[in-house]
Amino acid sequence: MDAAYREELDYLKAYAGQDWLGFGPIAGAAAKLLRGRWTQDAENELMLRLVADLLAAGVRAGELTSSDETPFEPWPGDAAAVLDRIARELKARADSPDTGDICWFTVLQPRSG
């Protein structure tokens, strides 16, 4: 893993640990890493790689809810199922996803009590 990729991944992991991470920053990181070699397929592939590495680091994908008690509902299934779902969503799009599209990411904090 090269230094530029590691820097972007570390930023995304920190973001997910502090706030809800949407696809906007992930798409931005992929575009930055691709620089002049950007295509939609290359961006989608790199976003999936970033998401796979986020999931491996303990970040979860899911939906925001209207509940104050449970504001985030993780998607069911293992990392492979989540990646497959995201890959299908990306393939169906004609453009890059923005924050709020597809899903959200976060690090689930243990409940105190």
TrEMBL record:
Organism, as annotated: Pendulispora albinea
Protein name, UniProt field: Uncharacterized protein
